[in-house]
Amino acid sequence: MAACLHAAAQECLRAATPEDKVALTFDAFERFSRGELAPGDTAPPEPIAMPGRPACPRLVHARDLPRRGFGTPEGLAAFVHAIAHIEFNAIDLAWDAVYRFRGMPAGFYADWASVANDEARHFTMLRGRLQSLGHDYGDFDAHNGLWEMAQKTGHDGLARMALVPRVLEARGLDVTPGMIVKLRQRGDGATADILDVILREEVGHVAAGSRWFRWHCAQRGLEPQATFKALLAEYARAVLYGPFNREARLEAGFDAEELASLDALAN
What we know:
By secondary structure, the chain is mostly helical. The chain has a single domain, classed as Ferritin, CATH 1.20.1260.10. It has 10 helices and 2 strands. A two-stranded parallel ribbon has the order 1-2. It is globular, with a radius of gyration of 18 Å. The relative contact order is 0.11.
């Protein structure tokens, strides 16, 4: 009999060190892929107010983070650290979806276990790059915005799928291409190559959010575009910024009318 996937997700969430969280994530995904883990208990889970975190980085409000370009060695390291922190949080966001939302179709758990595995790999690549720059994860302050949105949407799978993958994570689809161009112009192919991998795979992660957002809408008889617009107005107006990467967002499950609505809301 397969062990419980939700329990494995909880173990990954509670892991405090980067080494433990990554190792447990890779192990859980491998076991899940072999059929050794399966979703089980459909009872409401024990709430997780905050996942395991290392002592550093210190978490501060986003407005208190210094603004740096990556034209200096320190600025480049801070930039790589910021992206690594996003990916570290994304591991927890994916496992939280697996842990928190019970009784979903098997494909839901397959999607988010795979996303967790990808995010752990992304974090590992970025941490390696950061170490090559003479730093490590925890050397710079960071913010907790991604997990704060996870808490706000923890009561509702529809809101979670709409707002975490399709707003916060989709922001990466918009800004990463420009970052890659600037890095290559500065001769930093090492960092740019990592961001190329992340950008390509994040399209699939946002697409998973789109897929399960629409699944929830269908289950409740809701019209997706109007529902997404209402959720943006309620939760995410302050974190919605254009311009939008139309090509990547279309590939990630947005449609032309949604993108027109986003343009109107962001302006």
